[in-house]
Amino acid sequence: MKDILQELEDRRAVARMGGGQARVDAQHAKGKLTARERVELLLDEGSFEEFDMFVAHRCTEFGMEKERPYSDGVVTGWGTINGRLVYLFSQDFTVLGGSVSETHAKKICKIMDMAVQNGAPVIGINDSGGARIQEGVDSLAGYGEVFQRNITASGVVPQISVIMGPCAGGAVYSPAMTDFIFMVKDSSYMFVTGPDVVKTVTNEQVTAEELGGATTHTRKSSVADAAFENDVEALAEVRRLIDFLPSSNREKPPVRPFFDDPGRIEDSLDTLIPDNPNMPYDMKELILKIADEGDFYEIQEEFAKNMITGFIRIEGQTVGVVANQPMVLAGCLDIDSSRKAARFVRFCDCFEIPLLTLVDVPGFLPGVTQEYNGVIKHGAKLLFAYGEATVPKVTVITRKAYGGAYVVMSSKHLRGDFNYAWPTSEIAVMGAKGATEIIHRADRDNPEKLAAHAKDYEDRFASPFVAAERGFVDEVIMPHSTRKRVARAFASLRGKKAPMPWKKHDNIPL
Ligand code: HXC
Asked: How many domains does the chain have?
């Protein structure tokens, strides 16, 4: 009996060594942790339960039958993060370059199926040379099975991808279909075709980092949601993110104990808006002052900075925040900011996370580039996302809410539940100057008259009260009481149900 038990321990020890000490050393030399070290850091200590440790590939091509390492290049299983169940896979670059074989893919599929059945998030740590070249179409089939599961699980359980090494070719499409992608600076990259192919086909010369590194994907392409300095930091941030999310669409987001008075008054907010309407101010200050303990988890911080998206808690409950940022491009809507916010709104709606929208928007960004690149369709995404969202929606207009952008930003007309405005709000078709130049075109050569018209327009429209008279704004509130009003609004909406008519699915403009 002792020998039998010992054999199990021996086999486990072999599996845990992955591709052997030399390859583990090579992994460390690149500043990367091994697959198992990453799992240990991500999960609560001692909570990891592994599946399929002894799975080995079945390929007999190219002499592969001689090398059949345990685990087949991916560590899979489940564990807990701050006590809550998650399923995960972590590709092991030290074993056949973490390449995806038929059996490697089956292991991933197994934990994805279990995650959906049990209602828990899936976290995928990617570090792989892609399709196992020796396996040909069996490997591609394996990817296909994973892709289908990403799609089936979308909106059912949160899916998070952490890119911690190569992720190239069609392999990128699994992370691309998950809810959040985190990358590590200088040691991870994602591209459909690598620098060599790019050079051959388009004659462009770029490094892997320039083409698909963490900075590129968080700043330029918006493929990734955040970039971190190293594996340890990235995994710690995944833990923080999981704390904000519900385990599945069958559950409400977790409610944390809170020690911050929901009725907290913030006098400094009464002077947040500058006297000059064209002066910017930092919308993040308002977010931090509304949030419990000033804790804000920003998503896509480096992309489309004219729009802020992320999670806070109010009375311990997760709230998704979407806010115009007057510090960048005056907080206007454009293609990038609309896409960014639309995806975030849809994520929150799938997972029953209430939405807080903070509005200071002068309209859509004008320009040939915007029109040629389809601002109509991209702006419509955000409009559509807000209109279809049935979660509790609370909106606070702090200053400008002009034109189409007023309607888009979670207005009453898109079934906003509580639409508040600060007394500094200006809710109008456009700014006074632009408006008078159009409606008083006859006086265009008379600056004095134009100024008088502009003043008249401002007096009549540059306030929240016209909208309040019509009930489009439910209440004009004091800036200092915003946290209290917002907290009470969300508290009153906890039982909200807003069913939509039956449909197979909608047809959001893509
Ligand atoms: C089998 C692979 C492999 C792969 C790497 N290895 N990629 N084995 N299939 N796809 C093995 C190597 O042979 C090597 O084995 C070990 O992993 C480590 O690889 P190195 O090349 O030594 O590492 P490094 O220098 O860091 O380079 C990493 C790399 C390179 C850039 C990822 O390995 C590479 O270019 N691999 C091929 C990438 C590729 O073309 N994949 C197919 C893409 S198409 P030893 O035994 O020497 O340690 C694709 C389609 C998916 O993925 C489609 C989905 C629908």
From this structure: 3
